[in-house]
Amino acid sequence: MLNIKLNYILVIILFMSSVAILYQIQLARLQEKLIKLEHLQAKYETAPNRKEASELLNENNVVVLYNRVPKTASTSFVGVAYDLCKKNNFHVLHVNITANSHTLSLTNQLKFALNVSNWDSMKPALFHGHFAYLDFSKFGISNPLYINLIRKPLDRFISYYYFIRYGDNYRPYLIRRKHGNTMSFDECVTKQLPDCDPNNMWLQIPFFCGHSINCWKPGNKWALNEAKRNLINNYFLVGVTEELDDFISVLEQSLPRLFKGASDHYSNSNKSHLRQTVQKDTPSEETVKKIKGSMIWQMENELYEFALEHFHFIKKFGFKNKFQNIMYEKIRPKG
């Protein structure tokens, strides 16, 4: 009988301890939110007017999603963001998907969209990772501000070919999966080996196309058109690797909440060459001719040229005319 009472008392003690721990956790979360609210309120009260205060609150909720294409200088750009995040008071989060997969299952698509949208304690935030475009709106969730960089397809392809053989100066100690294979890209093309098959260039199109099966079928014309449509309609900004400094400048002008000071930091630091492949041979004219004769290169290059033209349009009519005003006139009915 005594043992039963002791067990009963022990259960009660464990239960009360659990309740106390949960209470402390909830209290800590509430205190964290309260501190953030007080911080926002202080900024709100010191803002010159309600308009500026409202803009401040909106900026603190901004979420930027960078679904970075491999070998496009993405590490250099993300390095700038990591350097600025403490100074500009925002979070940078790397999205690491199991087995380096570029796509997510339907269940994980929904989970990811909910996490990015509802993780308020991380906002404002820049999420980045090597994954294909995901349309949050199909889950009834507002899309974040997508950004990306795109590179000349043959340059990106050759860079990756040598990268998996020789690695880079960013993590020189890491042994890549083709380590020890010293075959040149020219020789690979001459022998028509799988590593230099033009089908392997099919990557930037599916990254902008998304999670449809057709996006990942090399040479699919629908995928190219979908990639173009997403680039224009669903991306806040897409730059090109060859003009990375301008890409950073446009982001600083358009999203100063996150990227204030980014241009100066980039130009005055070593971030412009943060990750370089250790060894990379220039291909012969014959090799270039063979690759450019493939339909895959032609389609990937079409997307690149499309992105380049659009980026130049943004720089010409948006970035350089940064002192534009928007006025609303002739409002009827009066009063």
Automatic annotation (TrEMBL):
Belongs to the sulfotransferase 3 family. Pfam families: Sulfotransfer_2. It is found in: Golgi apparatus membrane. This is Uncharacterized protein. Signal peptide: none annotated. The chain crosses the membrane at residues 6-25. It comes from the Eukaryota. Homotrimer. One of its GO terms (molecular function) is heparan sulfate 2-sulfotransferase activity. Its main location: Golgi. Keywords: Disulfide bond, Glycoprotein, Golgi apparatus, Membrane, Signal-anchor, Transferase, Transmembrane, Transmembrane helix. It is a single-pass type II membrane protein. One of its GO terms (biological process) is heparan sulfate proteoglycan biosynthetic process. GO terms for cellular component: Golgi membrane. It comes from Exocentrus adspersus.
